[in-house]
Design goal:
The chain has four helices and seven strands; from the N terminus they run E-E-E-E-H-E-E-E-H-H-H. The protein has about 170 residues and is α+β, with helices and mostly antiparallel strands. It has a single domain, classed as Nucleoside Triphosphate Pyrophosphohydrolase.
Amino acid sequence: MGKGGLMQHQFCPNGASVVYSNSQGHFPVVRDRWTGRWQLPGGGVEIDESYDEAAVREFYEETGLAIFEDELVHIADFVQRVRNPTLDTIVTGNLRLYVVERVYGGLRYEANSEILEVRYMSFKEIMSNQGDFNIAYVRLLLHYRRWVEGRTPVSFSGALSEKIELSSLELCRA
C-alpha cells in the first residue's frame, strides 16, 4: 500500500524492444509523447509477464502489427538505467532486443497516452536524423545492423543513452 492506503503501481526496470525491417528495408518507429523523440517499438515488462510476452504486447500496442512469441529472435541484452518514478531513484534493469522477420496486419496509429505518431523509416533516414531519436534506440538499431551483417555485435554495458561511437564505414553505409 502506498500513502493514504492507495495501491502503488509496481515498478519493473526491465524492457523489451523489437526490430522489424519490411521488404523496402524500412523499420516501424514510434514518436514518444513525452520526449517527442522517435524510438523502436517496445516498452516495460510487467511484473507478471516474460520478456517475450512484453515484446509481443508492446509491439502490437504501439504499431498495430501482430507478431508471435515463437517467431521472436533474441539477439541481445543491454543494461539500462531508468528512473523509478515512485522512489525517484535510478535503478538498473535489462533491455532485451528481439528481431522478427514477419508481421501480421497493417501499421496503424491509435491515439494513446504514450505515442504521438507511428511510421516506417529507412536506416538512412534514421541515421540522418539522429537528433530526433532517443539515442538508446539508435544504438539498438546499430546493434541489429551489425547482427544482420554477420559481424559480432559490440557488447554494451552501461546507460543506453551514452554517446555512440560510429565507425567511418558505418557512417558511409547509412
